[in-house]
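step: validate -> pass
step: tokenize input -> pass
step: predict -> running
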Amino acid sequence: MRKSVGAFAAGVLCANSLPHLATAVTGHGHLTPLRGRDSAPGVNALWAAMNLAAGLALLRATARGQGRWDVRLVAFDAGAATFAAWMAISESTMRVNWDQGA
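step: predict -> pass
step: emit ->
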């Protein structure tokens, strides 16, 4: 159970890196804890790298082993899917990262 929780958290962290990476590549501003609501692309690239590195390190610590995957793959996928669903719902309703002037 404990390793599944770690794999779930790793999925959340890895999924969180994607919108920040997309923001960095496209040159947009996006909320981060590092610089707030108007974090620049470089800050988002750093935040994406931090999330991805932490997620992969946590995944390695919780799901390392030989052979095929077990329930930890499902937990990782569930973490990524949960974060993606939360982001889709929160952005469509609260529009935290939208250009309010557009």
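step: describe -> The two ends are 46 Å apart (CA to CA).
step: cleanup -> pass
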